[in-house]
Amino acid sequence: MDARPIGVFDSGLGGLTTVKKLAELLPEEDIVYLGDTGRVPYGSRSRETIIKYARQDAAFLVGLNIKVMVIACNTVCAVAFNILDDMYDIPVYEVVNTPAKAAAAVTKNGRIGVIGTTATIRSGAYEAALKKIAPELLVLSTPCPLFVPLAENGRNSAGDVAAMTIAGDYLADIAGFGADTLIMGCTHYPLMRDVISRVMGSGVKLIDSGAETAKLIASDIQVGRMKAPAGSEGRIRYFVTDSIDGFSELASRFLESDVHGMVEQIIFV
Fold first, then answer.
1. Which listed site, 3, 9, 81, 192, has its alpha carbon 20 to 30 Å from 160?
2. What's domain 6-94+211-265's architecture?
3. Up-side HSE of residue 190: CA atoms within 13 Å toward CB?
4. Is 186 a catalytic residue?
5. Are 164 and 198 in contact (CB under 8 A)?
6. If you classify domain 97-210 with CATH, what class do you get?
7. In 3D, which of 76, 60, 42 has the Cα closest to residue 266?
């Protein structure tokens, strides 16, 4: 048994999609979440800056004696996963390979779309993962940089004209490509699910990268020796690098649970 918490970090609140799924699957586990809201988004940053931020995020969580680290940021996974994985002797999970496997398993026509931040798409991480699984797959990737600020500002309704217009422009090529499966390659993007689904149509399967990874983590913890003691009641702690109030409001709405009073601010130097 292992009472240490699971550590999760992202550039903002997108990683809460992973936290929400983990809490559903592992209600007895403590979770610590770090959202680097003061420096979001990461997707438009240089490789060097992303690595610097990722190192700081990871070091903070490790300082809280976590047993597992979850990089709930596709940009960091694409750029710095191997660096962080080599730095620590605890399991480090990324959010690229598991959703790629899920997409390859459900596609019917072998055409898969991938959306993500500019840095994630530029890295080619999803294409590489998908081609390794099944070389015959056809993959089309498109960056959707404005989805993160839209999600962070609550502009994620299918009734939001601006969100729908931007999504329609971003997703036009993938829709024309005939993809029957779309990987939401950023943990912020499930917050935009209604918008994305409306544009792509109900026949397109949306793959949530954070949720798919959470399923893998839950399975690994349940079958290994990392489970929390029997009868434990898990709690979640939240840390941010910018306004507590703004994060608390949006997080409460998304998680459908009031997190006011449960969020702490930290400052990276």
1. 9
2. 3-Layer(aba) Sandwich (3.40)
3. 22
4. yes
5. yes
6. alpha beta
7. 60
User: Cβ contacts of residue 63 below 8 Å, gap of 6+?
Assistant: none
144 is catalytic: no
Q: Are 11 and 41 in contact (CB under 8 A)?
A: yes
All CATH 3.40.50.1860 domain ranges in the chain, comma separated: 6-94+211-265, 97-210
Q: Which of 61, 114, 186, 259 is catalytic?
A: 186
167/192 Cα distance (integer angstroms): 9
Look up the pTM and report it.
0.91
The per-residue pLDDT for range 66-104, each reduced to its tens digit, is 999 999 999 999 999 999 999 999 999 999 999 999 999
Q: Which of 73, 103, 182, 195 is catalytic?
A: 73
Q: Which amino acid is at 141?
A: S
As given in the structure block, the two tokens for residue 82 are: 């191997």
Q: Which tokens hold the place of 8?
A: 């999760």
pLDDT at 64: 98
Q: What is the pLDDT of residues 140-197, one digit of tens each?
A: 999 999 999 999 888 999 999 999 999 999 999 999 999 999 999 999 999 999 999 9
